[in-house]
Design brief:
Elements: H1 2-14, H2 22-30, H3 35-67, H4 72-84, H5 98-107, H6 112-138
Length: 143
């Protein structure tokens, strides 16, 4: 049940709803849960939440493409994001700006394989760092 709660909190935290999963993750770590399993579940939930944002953006992109089909600026904005902005997906874990980045990636119709790769790297690294810091903070070994 704890694992499901972590998955759902990580998923919701990655959507446009304001929520965090860090407190629950650290609480589960303090219960001597398997760190690798917790990392995997939190990362999976968080990435799937970002996929929801991407999907919403992709769906809205259909509407915007039809509405602005003759506007060069819309197509130029999409191309510019895909050329330069897609690397921002490595920072999709950041509070406040991270969730909109994944929505914008969908709007820009970023290649899904690139989207997944960059989001998994960023979010996976963040949870790994969070787990490592939590372990160091609770260790008995002084620096």
């Amino acid at each position: 049940m704890d694992i499901l709660a972590l998955f759902l909190s990580a998923l919701i935290a990655a959507t446009l709803f304001p929520m965090g999963s860090e407190v629950l993750l650290i609480a589960l770590l303090s219960q001597d849960k398997n760190e690798i399993l917790l990392w995997f579940v939190a990362t999976l939930g968080n990435v799937l939440g970002s996929v929801i944002n991407y999907g919403l953006g992709f769906w809205a992109s259909d509407y915007l493409n039809k509405k602005y089909q003759h506007a060069k600026s819309w197509k130029q904005a999409q191309a510019a994001y895909n050329r330069y902005g897609s690397w921002s997906l490595l920072f999709a874990w950041l509070p406040i700006i991270g969730d909109p980045i994944t929505l914008i990636a969908g709007l820009a119709r970023t290649r899904f394989s690139l989207f997944i790769l960059l989001v998994v790297i960023g979010k996976g690294a963040r949870y790994a760092l969070l787990i490592a810091l939590a372990q160091v903070a609770t260790s008995q070994y002084p620096f």
